[in-house]
Amino acid sequence: MKHLRKLIIMLLTITALSSHAQCTLENTAFKSGEVLTYNLYYNWKFVWVKVGTASLSTVQTYWNGKNVFKSSLITRGNGKLDGFFVMRDTLLSYTTTQLAPLYFRKGAREGKGYRVDEVFYDYSGGKCNLRMFRKKDDKPGVWKTESSALCVLDMLNLFVRARSFDNSNWKPGWTLKLPIADGDGLADAHLKYEGKENIKGDNGVTYRCLALTYSEYFKRKKKWKEIATFYVTDDANHVPIRIDLNLNFGSAKAYVVGMAGVRSPITAKVK
User: Do residues 10 and 18 lie in contact, with contact meaning Cβ atoms separated by under 8 Å?
Assistant: First the structure.
């Protein structure tokens, strides 16, 4: 009986680790201390107006006793269009050093509303188990739980994780299908490679970029919606140079203005 108990525990451990392993990916794109900064623009009556800034930073730290990466994406409006809409978003993601998601939080003030989403990940029982929380304005928060045999990601983890994808065999039309999580549950999503394009950042430099479009399926409307297109450098870093966003209240763009602590030489500069 004692040996049987040990065998059962060992099998459960192996199963849990295998589920965790399917969410892992070797980080080849960034290192601790990287900070990317952006200018934000909003399409106001067919004119692109600078309305704020954004920053994406990654550090290696400890979380619940684990050595992890902490990524933070912060957007801040400059007040020019606050009378029409307010954009104050803070996204936080903790992953293992092999990029398996552990925790996600988004606090968003967009327009007149404020929303908090949280996702907690667990890999016991050979599945990706999620506890999800959403709170809108002053209404009571709602918890949901989901389990999936597939690796589930959140939007920030996908954003960070995609930078380490091997694109050597990609052709336009290549598509990655996956479940995506936020505080309200799971949704079908896909990331599609559109091809290469030269993109100029707000730092005055033009880069050869890979274009990736991210879309989600909205069950209530029964249709796919294109959420964002990312233009990332065609080199080992895959630094996002421009991000096109389709918001509920219009269109926005983010252009890179600064890079600090980048892991590898930027070889995608167009001479």
Answer: no
> Can you read off the two tokens belonging to residue 247?
């918001």
pLDDT tens digits along 164-173: 999 999 999 9
Distance (Å, whole) CA 130 – CA 183: 10
Q: pLDDT, tens digit, for every residue of 47-98?
A: 888 888 999 999 999 998 999 999 999 988 776 666 555 667 899 999 999 9
Give the CA radius of gyration of the chain.
20
Both tokens of residue 198?
């030269």
Total count of residues recorded for the chain: 271
Distance CA 108, CA 116 (A): 6
Tokens describing residue 37:
């900064």
Q: What is the pLDDT of residues 94-121, one digit of tens each?
A: 999 999 999 999 997 766 678 999 999 9
Rounded to two decimals, what is the model's pTM? 0.86
Say which amino acid occupies 18: S
- pLDDT given for residue 42 in this prediction: 86
Name the nearest CA neighbour of 213 among 223, 226, 225.
226
- Alpha carbon distances (Å) from 124 to 19, 65, 128, 162: 8, 17, 7, 25
Q: Which two tokens stand for residue 146?
A: 């989901």
Strand ranges, E, within the chain: 34-44, 47-63, 66-77, 87-96, 101-110, 113-122, 128-136, 142-148, 153-154, 175-182, 185-200, 206-218, 223-233, 240-247, 250-260
Cα–Cα distance, 125 to 145 (Å, whole number) = 15
Mean local confidence (pLDDT), 252-256:
94
DSSP 105-119: EEEEEETTEEEEEEE
